[in-house]
Amino acid sequence: MATATLARVVAVSNSGGLSPAGTVTLQPLVNQVDGAGNAVPQPQVFGCPYLRLQGGANAVILDPAVGDIGIAVFADRDISSVIATRAQANPGSRRRFDLSDGLYLGGVLNGTPSQYVQFNDGGITLTSPVAVTINAPQTTCTGALTVQGLLTYEDGMAGSGGTGAAAQISGNISVTGGNVTADGIDLKTHTHSGVQTGSGNTGGPQG
What we know:
two-stranded antiparallel ribbon; elongated; single chain; CATH 2.40.50.230; mainly beta; about 5% helix
């Protein structure tokens, strides 16, 4: 009678893409032992649905990965008909607490992540060694925003594939220890030619 155990993921139907929650193939990690004390590995569990944090159309897509260790539980009745139809159904057979009716609940006993969302008393940290992409028609940041590194606005840049929309800022802009450049003309040292009230160019901008 299978109830709950630790299992290792050996195959996954999904790989982090935008799709419905999938299934995993599991290898239960606690061996059986015969009468002579010899280890007998448990058989693999195929087509096991895994847990996804989801409510309606809102979800966190974090598919299991091969090598993960996690909790597997086993239903008290055959759940194959419900898995096939995603609706209320009679048991597919008379089996009970069988390895074939497993559900994978997620990781335990795994290593240190390199990409993560961290919650602690100091706040929330979002870390990615590659990139962070936000797809939204509107994003609002309340409070101060600090950018340590290059800030690039691509929507209006030539060849960027953007719509050409302008950046709009309500309020003052203060630049400390740097300069502002527009189409190769810098704010701190530019001069004006063709001045009608005198000859030559104007001097540089005054502080």
